[in-house]
Amino acid sequence: MRKSLGRGDVAVNVGANIGYHALLMASCVQDSGQVFAYEPNPRAHQLLRRSLCWGGLLGTTTLFPFAAGDRRGTARFLVNREFLGGGSFYEWTPDLAWLHLPAYAHLHEADLRAVKEAFRLEAKPIDVHVATLDETVERCVPEIHLLLMDAQQAEPLVLEGGRDLIARSRDLTIVMEWGYGEKLVPDAGQRARARTAIERLAADGFEFREIRGDARDIYARPAILVPMDVEDVMATDRFVDIFARRRGTAA
What we know:
Elements: E1 10-14, H1 20-29, E2 34-38, H2 42-54, E3 61-64, E4 67-68, E5 73-80, E6 83-88, H3 109-120, E7 124-131, H4 133-136, E8 146-149, H5 155-161, H6 163-168, E9 173-178, H7 188-203, E10 206-212, E11 224-228, H8 230-235, E12 240-246
Parallel strand pairs: 1-2, 1-8, 2-3, 4-7, 8-9
Antiparallel strand pairs: 5-6, 5-7, 9-12, 10-11, 10-12
Helix pairs in contact: 5-7
């Protein structure tokens, strides 16, 4: 992130949760830059504001207490009280089949039990306001330099709602959690929306890399960037972090 942002830059954090990345972004762009952070979970948003206030960075950050999506309106949002970062527009796979994929083989049995128990608890549906990046960020700044998303499989909707902003931001890095293989997302319509979003980025010159590190010890060694094409991105059977920049621009 520090390589992608500098003083005076503009960053967007979709799914800001309690503010770890928003704090880092604000410290990178400093007083002359701006950070826009979206977090629709009321409890998480409260903690996000508190984090930025205690960090002395609230003045650099614009907080949106709603979700980013592909259109303005209201949507049903599922909140799990035991998993603050798991709010989503979508139901999780009931049998949590994704936990049994080889990519998660490193998890200890106790960790698996804890995750399964958290997801067994009934998620509480709430109504949240939804707006697009184009109608919220675009009216404030002409371009952005970093778009960071962890939106629990709403990333394609966010990309759709930010098409104009993304097209105009020529020096843009996108970092997002991604997982749309058939085993992770059985719904064909949801996978089709994801493919459309990725293909549009590719047509606009974006190249994709997986940010790959040691999941058992993220501090063991620096992550590496592994090139991916559109088919690689769409076929992944695990949740991965994707790094995307237009070809010919410095990483």
